[in-house]
């Protein structure tokens, strides 16, 4: 989705002033660059005055020595101007890249700190376009556009004053013919700013489409929907093209006035100058110098349109970047954090409630008062029908989302009272949809062990233990073993391989609490059995909450919690719940049916369910 700027009501100056914290360290270099550029402009403005003296003296007198001296003076001024232009670039180019680096690093850190709820609302293409295109544009404007805009405006002002040096009427003509340009510039700013924002937002949407189609290329090919994706992309690209054309028309209109009015000024000045010469108000060398000065001023005047559009593009880019900086981070460290010196791993949900940010007012909470306690070292299976809130519940212990009511505690301490870094050292997660990074197998598995040198003997021991538990020995058959760099998101691996590496990553973190959201769904039956056997050893000393989507996962648990319409309606052993809960039997039957479809086998728990029903009937008869 495109995200509208929340700061569009700010003036352009106020919007760009927000860059001050990033620019402050290099302000001295920027001043040096501006001073160099202004010196170059002043030198250029001196050349017409020197030419006037040459025409007035050496050319009129015909003295060759004086003429040669005048030529060398003009050459020296030209070389001085070139030196100042070089000095301007030396002053600003490297510091501007530092600003770009700092903005990118700050924005990346901000994206890492913002909660999952923020990333639910934002398209990755929009974030990517801000990170790359917008910050790069800001850097170019700071290094080039800002300095030239200030210097060229000053140059026009100084040059306009100097034009009065020869005759006030010529100066007035120059100023009056500039009025339409300033009016058009004001209208241009209003019109172009809207188009610039629309264009950059549409570019972000287009980037999102490219990213989605690349990541989903297997699906598109499998369903033969490549042509459909192309039509969608072409439609978005055409919309962006139309916006860019509107921008070009807007720039063309301002350029029309910037090109037309100087021509009119030259024509009026020529006619007026000839009249002034005829009445002997000025002399020919003065008129020559006037036109030389006007010629020097022509580029600064014509550049104003481009520099204004550049400034508005930079303002829009700044708005887009600060849309992210101004987002409220709702999941933060407490002001006065508590600490767990020797955590036991007791995880408790106390009246925990949760609803997503886009839920309607009339909708009930997705988690509607969860009360559940996991004892230290206990393995708890969480079962429920689709949509009951199982996956959402697993996001709460590590504060991927915060409860909207009640609380979650670790060893009796509200997890919101713990620093996030400490909390996430104690609680690790493995998701059903395993996400890996474009890094080596070693780096992926040891992601949660920042305190280890990944190439140390201790890291090697942890790595091998985790890979053994996850039955991920396949990594040794990869081209470079555990040093093999896996492809983007691990798509070069099978689904089961990705899940085993994700599980190994969670195990390697050696947490006190392990939260697993059906981490074995992509494994074959034999591998799953081996992983479950190894997990039993790991979970002997670790508190675990496992979302169960298959009957075999339930067998790992000491107890089972039944989630029904956002509430825990029953807790007990598997056999107890089979005997006492009709809804649990229904859920297990559903899991069995899904498992039978997946494996082509006959459900194995149906007999237990039938036995439990028979026992209930017998007990009823005896009563």
Automatic annotation (TrEMBL):
The chain crosses the membrane at residues 26-51, 63-87, 141-162, 168-188, 254-277, 289-312. It is a multi-pass membrane protein. GO terms for cellular component: plasma membrane. The keyword Nucleotide-binding applies. Residues 347-590 form the ABC transporter domain. Residues 31-313 form the ABC transmembrane type-1 domain. GO terms for molecular function: ABC-type oligopeptide transporter activity; ATP binding; ATP hydrolysis activity. Keywords: ATP-binding, Cell membrane, Membrane, Nucleotide-binding, Transmembrane, Transmembrane helix, Transport. Gene3D superfamilies: ABC transporter type 1, transmembrane domain, P-loop containing nucleotide triphosphate hydrolases. It is found in: Cell membrane. Its main location: membrane. It comes from the Bacteria. InterPro entries: AAA+_ATPase, ABC1_TM_dom, ABC1_TM_sf, ABC_transporter-like_ATP-bd, ABC_transporter-like_CS, P-loop_NTPase, Type_1_exporter. This is Methionine ABC transporter ATP-binding protein.
């Amino acid at each position: 989705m495109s995200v509208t700027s929340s700061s569009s009501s700010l003036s352009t100056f106020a919007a760009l002033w927000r860059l001050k914290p990033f620019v402050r360290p290099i302000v001295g270099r920027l001043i040096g660059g501006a001073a160099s550029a202004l010196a170059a402009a002043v030198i250029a403005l001196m050349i017409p005055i020197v030419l006037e003296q040459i025409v007035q003296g050496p050319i009129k007198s015909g003295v060759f020595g004086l003429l040669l001296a005048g030529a060398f003076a003009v050459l020296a001024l030209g070389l001085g101007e070139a030196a100042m232009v070089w000095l301007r670039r030396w002053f600003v180019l490297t510091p501007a890249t530092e600003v770009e680096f700092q903005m990118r690093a700050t924005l990346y850190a901000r994206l890492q700190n913002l909660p999952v709820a923020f990333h639910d609302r934002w398209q990755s293409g929009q974030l990517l376009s801000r990170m790359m295109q917008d910050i790069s544009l800001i850097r170019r404007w700071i290094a080039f556009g800002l300095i030239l805009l200030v210097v060229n405006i000053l140059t026009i002002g100084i040059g306009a004053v100097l034009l009065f040096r020869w005759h006030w009427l010529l100066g007035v003509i120059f100023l009056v013919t500039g009025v339409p340009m300033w009016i058009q510039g004001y209208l241009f700013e209003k019109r172009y700013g809207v188009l610039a924002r629309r264009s950059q937002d549409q570019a972000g949407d287009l980037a999102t489409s490219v990213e989605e189609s690349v990541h989903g290329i297997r699906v598109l090919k499998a369903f033969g929907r490549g042509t459909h994706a192309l039509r969608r992309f072409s439609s978005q690209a055409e919309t962006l093209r139309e916006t860019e054309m509107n921008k070009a028309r807007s720039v063309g209109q301002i350029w029309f006035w910037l090109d037309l009015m100087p021509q009119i000024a030259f024509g009026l000045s020529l006619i007026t100058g000839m009249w002034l010469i005829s009445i002997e108000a000025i002399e020919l060398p003065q008129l020559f110098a006037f036109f030389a000065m006007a010629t020097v001023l022509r580029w600064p005047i014509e550049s104003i349109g481009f520099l204004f559009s550049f400034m508005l593009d930079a303002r829009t880019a700044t708005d887009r970047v600060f849309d992210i900086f101004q987002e409220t981070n709702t999941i933060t460290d407490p002001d006065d954090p508590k600490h767990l010196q020797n955590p036991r791993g007791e995880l408790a949900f106390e009246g925990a409630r949760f609803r997503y940010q886009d839920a309607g007012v009339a909708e009930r909470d997705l988690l509607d008062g969860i009360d559940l306690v996991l004892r230290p070292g206990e393995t708890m299976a969480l079962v429920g029908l689709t949509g009951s809130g199982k996956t959402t519940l697993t996001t709460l212990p590590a504060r991927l989302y915060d409860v909207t009511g009640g609380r979650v505690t670790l060893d009796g301490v509200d997890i919101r009272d713990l620093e996030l870094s400490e909390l996430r050292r104690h609680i690790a997660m493995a998701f059903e949809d395993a996400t890996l990074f474009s890094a080596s197998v070693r780096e992926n598995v040891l992601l949660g062990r920042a305190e280890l040198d990944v190439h140390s003997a201790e890291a090697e021991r942890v790595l091998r233990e985790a890979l053994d538990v996850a039955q991920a020995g396949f990594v040794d058959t990869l081209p470079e073993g555990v040093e093999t760099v896996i492809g983007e998101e691990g798509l070069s691996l099978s689904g089961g391989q990705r899940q085993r590496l994700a599980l190994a990553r969670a195990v390697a973190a050696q947490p006190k609490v392990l939260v697993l959201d059906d981490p074995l769904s992509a494994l074959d039956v034999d591998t799953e059995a081996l992983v479950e056997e190894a997990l039993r050893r790991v979970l002997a000393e670790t508190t675990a909450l496992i979302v169960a989507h298959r009957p075999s996962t339930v067998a790992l648990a000491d107890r089972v919690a039944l989630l029904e319409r956002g509430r825990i309606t029953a807790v007990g052993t598997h056999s107890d719940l089979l005997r006492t809960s009709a809804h649990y039997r229904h859920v297990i039957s559903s899991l069995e049916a899904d498992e039978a479809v997946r494996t082509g086998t006959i459900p194995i728990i149906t007999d237990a369910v039938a036995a439990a029903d028979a026992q209930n009937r017998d007990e009823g008869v005896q009563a």
